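[Automated response] Your request has been received and processed.

Submitted sequence:
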Amino acid sequence: MKHPESRGTILTEDANVVSHTAFDGDQYILVLEAPRIAARALPGSFVHIQCDPLLPMRRPISLMRTVDGHIELLYKVLGDGTQLLAQRKVGDTISVLGPIGVPFTATRKRPLLIGGGVGMPPMIFLADALRKDSTLQPLVILGSEVPFPFRAKPSTFLLPGIPDGVTATMPLLEDWGVPARLASLQGYPGVFEGYVTDLARHWLNALDDAERAEIEVFACGPHPMLNAVAKLAREFDLPCQVSLEEFMACAVGGCAGCVVEVQTPQGPAMKRVCVDGPVFDARTVFAA
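Generated structure:
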């Protein structure tokens, strides 16, 4: 499927802060009233947000979901910009550009969604969209090395191949009827002790060839995690789409500050993560 030029859909909206909740690990969930952006957003979209009126450089943040004209964002404080953003209060107005980027496209019956850290939001947004199609059977695997930005609870879904005792899930996904499991190296109760790719391999190995032929992989997270997911997809001969995380200045394709090398039928090419991505075929970005 060919997507339209991303820049033609980007809006500027002054969004009101509806809620702003802090979680352990310097993580925050920010809910903004931005009905025009919410109406156009798709799984994989992100916004470019003004963290503070005195800071001209915006910050890109992935969309976690849209609800009734609101957009929800999960971010982690990493520098001056997000530190200023963390100080914004309910009732404040924040300038937002969006939605930006090429979204995910699902084509197979069994989507496997893998998110790590602040790469979890696009997977949650995608799960929200996929659950509305009763013919699809998504599975979500989320990983974090800081406390998860939600209170995990035991899942009621039985998943062949998932190790005994690995029951923790995200309550929102459970409420949606989307099976999910969590992975971490931090020893959290009910959470798989290991990497998200290790847990995914357990599950994939439990499937037969016909079941694996119905799977495609979607992922967002740190670069080393995406590289590992791309290798996992090649190992099982599965299509894989990844959403890249890159620093960017303009986020609308003008500055070329977020380019990555992508393999094309014509040879290597430099593509802009903001408007040519952030979603790419993993095989074109990560070497075998």
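Summary generated for your ticket: Confidence is low (pLDDT under 50) at residues 1-7. Residues 216 and 238 are 6 Å apart (CA to CA).
If you did not submit this request, please reply to this message.
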